[in-house]
Amino acid sequence: MSLVLSYFNLGLLGSLLPAGFDANRGVFCGGVVATSFMKTWMQMVSINILSNSRKIGDLTVARLGAGAGNSFTRGIICAGSASSFFNVIDYFTIAIDNNAIDFGDHVSTPTLLAGCSSDVRAVFAGGLIAFDQEQSRMDYVTIDTTSNTTFFGQMTEQRAGPASANSATRGFFVGGTNSALHKSMDFITIDTTGTATDFGDLSIANIELSGLNSDVRACFGGGRNIPFNDGTEVIDYITMSTLGNTIDFGDLTKERWGMATANNLTRGLWAGGEGDINGNDRFDIIDYVTINTLGNALDFGDLGLGVISRFPGVSGN
Length: 317
Fold this sequence. Notes:
Structural class: mainly beta
Radius of gyration: 17 Å
Largest sheet: 4 strands, antiparallel
CATH architecture: 6 Propeller
Number of strands: 28
CATH topology: Neuraminidase
Strand content: 35-45%
Order of helices and strands: HEEEEEEEEEEEEEEEEEEEEEEEEEEEE
CATH superfamily: Kelch-type beta propeller
C-alpha cells in the first residue's frame, strides 16, 4: 500500500522532499511461485513508464501473505508465512536497489494481513495467526524508527485476506473473511490509535482482493469467494474523504486474486496473482489504470521474474 500526498503540489515541494524520494517507483516483495515455494524477491517498476519489472534485492526471509506500508522513502514488509508463520518485519529504501534489513517483530505471527500508512506510521491489520484463526487486531510501527509493533486497536470484524488503501490521513481495511466472507469496509485515522469505524460495503464479498489509491480515490480489484474460490475481475472504487459503498470502476484484464499493488498520484498497478486455488494458474501480468478515470485496466508489462502471487507492494509517493 502506498502513501499519497493529498495537500501538496509536487511541483512546489522542491527541497522539502526527503533525499531519495521517488514518487514513480513501485516495489513488489516476496510471494509464492508454486505450492510451498516462497520467494525473497524484491522487484521494481517505474509506475509512469510501461515496462517489465526487474529484481533489485531480497527480503530477509522468503514468504507470502505479508503486509506492507511505507513513508516517502522507506518500505516496510511485515510478517507472512512459508512452512511456518513469521513475525519478522523488514525495511528498505524504496528509491534505490538494496536488500531488506531487519526492522523488528510483529507482536504475533499473522499472514494474509493488510497494511496502510501515513508518512509517519504504518498500521497492519487482521490476518491469520494460525490456520483457521483470524484476528481483528491492528498494530503499528513508526516507520523511521526500527522497533516491534505496538497495539493500535480493533477492526469491526476479524479479517483474513483484506485489502487496504490510504489517503494521507485515513486508512482502509476492506473485505476478507473469518470463515464467512465480508463486504464491509473499515476506516481509521492512521495517526490516532483506536477502534476502526464502518465506512460502507463492497459490491461483492471477497477475500484476497488488492487495493491502491490516488490522493482522492481508492480502488479495490480482484479477489475470490469461498468455498468455491471463483476469482473476479471486478474493480470498485470509493472516494476516501466520504462514507459510502463502492461504485463500479471497470475490470482487470484477468480474473484473479493475491496481487501486489503500487501507485503514484495518477496511475495504479495490479501485478501477478492467481486464478486457481490449487496454484495451477498464476500470472506474471501487470495491469494499470488511471485512478481518477473510470475504465477497464490495460496491460502495463510483465513481472520480469515470472509468475507469482500473494505478495505486497509499496510505492515512494
